[in-house]
Predict the 3D structure of the following.
Amino acid sequence: VTFEPVTGVGGGIIAATGSEVVIKGARIARSEEGLLAAGGSMAVSDTEITGCDTGIVINRGAEFKAEKVKVSSCKVGGVDMRNYNKNTLPPDYGKNGEKAEFPEFTYTGFDGVTFSGCADASALYFNEQRFIYEEKRPAVPKTSDDTEGRVREFLGDYTVDGREEWSGTIIINGRVTVPPGSMLVIGEGTRVRFRRLDTNGDGLGEAELLVTGSIRVKGTEKNPVVFESAEEKPEPGDWDKVSVISSEDAENSVEGAVFRHGVQSLHNHFSLLAVKNSLFEGNLRALQFQESEKTTVENCRFDSNKQAVRFRDSKASILNCVFRNNDYAVHAFRAEVKFEGNFISGSSLGGMLAKECRLSMAKSGFEGVRSGLKVRGEGSELSLKNSSFSKSAESLLSLSGAKGEVDASEFNFSGMDLVSVEDSPLVFRENRFGYSARHKIHLKGSVGIDAAQNYWQADESNINKSIWDKNDNPALGEITYKPFK
């Protein structure tokens, strides 16, 4: 059985959490990821994977078994993120200047798989905590109903009329709506608990709080407002979301809150919203917004979500947030983004993707992720300053179709390239380039880049060996690196 797109690049085969995937006698070609074991179990035999961006990706928590599997001519052969914190490096790690488009590596962690003509990221694992951030994690009370009897339960649909204040324990079994002209104020220490409701049998909870009027969530560090499942054994996806849609209130706010077990726990659409000092953990998607003129996310923490933040067609400020051990951290599309003072680590399937965005990033760190920052698409602009990228299974910084400047940042330890650039007129100044398994800068396309006045952690002769440009392939542009620091 052949899986191959008619044109362009396909998506491959994905094993989601809870799934069981058995593949025998298949050919998978021209996909972003040939096989992605995101969760569940995947057993593959007598199968060929060829011409993909990445042949095989195994996420932490996934089970993967292979027998007689061949991976060929992929940009990356395999990435095994199950043991990302072991901090082991391949034997030839740090030998720059291989001067080959796809050098051969020794693969580990892929029993039953043979590789040919691929670059490798499989043997690179990571340690956390290179940066020390002050992380104020809200004190979350134990899951229990209110002992003083202040329990209020909504059975079915309910509409807030005028101004309503919640305290104690609120249980929602359906939809609570806050219409235009009404305001819901949720006081500190309130527990909003959602019963699992799944009328269409898709496995996803449907109970929600829908706000088209106004909302104020007023939790504190010591006494947060908690949004969570009401089930005895809670799981991600037990309830749907708190959704702010088409609200005309410019002061909508969520502060001092904890969101757990949601499908997309907090959602903002056609509205203004400020989210501060809050914790998102164990959600399928923690925070999503679109068509928002202003969404601010500040001093928040995102832990162990399938996807932490996803947004499009918006103007967003993400400030002083910590993202740990999410499958995907941040995905932005057609947006204007200020991303400052943030730290992303342990994102096993992706750090940050900004597609067709104007991105201003400063004082941020990426560490121990599958890939660091990707900036893609027509019209993309990047201003990157005073940031640090380290210990990525693939490239730390990858740009395609973007323009801008990268200043005073550090790139060190990657399973492929420190920086990968395709058709992007960029200027690099005062950056520090450390070690990589392939190249410090890998150029694709005819557009050259200005990388003068940077620190290369190598003498002049080795700089040329550790970059890939027109000197290696006449069809490419040139990387200008002189003068160097």
Summary: Residues 243 and 267 are 5 Å apart (CA to CA). Residues 85-107, 120-136, 143-147 have pLDDT under 50 and may be disordered.
